[in-house]
Amino acid sequence: MRLEDFTAAADIVGRRVRVSWVVVPDESETLADVEPVKLRRKVRDFAFPLPATPDPYLVYDSKSFPPPPVPGSLTVTDLTPWEVTDDGERTVFEPVSVAAALGGRMMEVLRRTTSTTYNAEGVPVRQRVEILDTGGQPGNLKTNTVYYYQLFGANIPADGSDAEPFQASSMVTETYGLNRTLYDSLPEVYRRHDVELRPETPGTESVPEQAPLSGQLRRFTDIFGIPLDSLRGTAEGLRTLHDIDHVDARYLTQLAQWIGWDLSVGVDIPLRRNEIKTATRLYGLVGTLPGLRSLVSRYTGWSTQVAEFAQNLATCVDQPV
User: Fold this and answer.
1) pLDDT in tens, 278-293
2) Is 161 in a helix, a strand, or coil?
3) Which residue stretches of the chain have pLDDT < 50?
4) Alpha-carbon distance 153 to 231, whole Å?
5) Which residues in the chain belong to E strands, given as ranges?
6) Closest by alpha carbon to 63, among 37, 97, 33, 42?
7) How far, rounded to the nearest angstrom, does the alpha carbon of residue 239 sit from its chain's CA centroid?
8) At CA 104, angle to CA 98 and CA 108, rounded to 5?
9) DSSP 123
């Protein structure tokens, strides 16, 4: 069983992140042999501590999903599945939504969508699992903040370079309501007659995309307004590119190259951030004893002592007898 293509990306709707991975069974395996996995999230880096009870970093646990419904406070809904046929393969999408009671109404807090691909003989050849992370409840994920996700499982290393294929990061965008602004700019006569709501489907009231709250025209303008929110949210995040402490770790190498510094390889993200911040000070120490000691320690990891030859030279002076 192989896990591959682990990715994280900001959702087109603000304050949400989509995390996905692909499961590919070997010839002698089926999707029933998939090992349980856990998805964890934190800020700044991938230095996840050992799991606690409860685990504050846990986003998704395949063994305990979906959680048991609790009347009045937690609901689990199997949303309408759909199929796509492409190049002789059939892919079946099956979303499951979890909603919790917040502010007197049910709101979606987690969604899992499994897309299983079958070949021409009807045999499943791969399955993509996508998790829609809202931070535990809508609005919990902070805007313009980079979150680091890592997948944990029995066959996945918990740390070290081998864990890199199961690590991904994404910056969260904001919801600016540009879809509502676009709709409100239309003539009132059109909005007045926009009363054809989406047909009600039991259990989908908590899903923002399927809530029966808007007319046909409003839903049509949302198609253009919500992507504008995503574009603006991405543009707003550009101002953090020079913030060494908060920039996505994927850009640290490029930032170091701007000042002519080669980052250390195979060290933790916090050390790489600190290395960039102190690089300009090291440039001022070029040719000095502290600078030499720092460079030797950086490249070898050894603690060094440097002595100047001038301290060990004997000087002969001719004096009259």
Assistant:
1) 888 777 777 777 777 8
2) helix
3) 160
4) 35
5) 2-10, 17-24, 37-43, 58-61, 74-78, 82-86, 89-102, 105-118, 124-133, 146-153, 167-171
6) 37
7) 19
8) 20
9) -
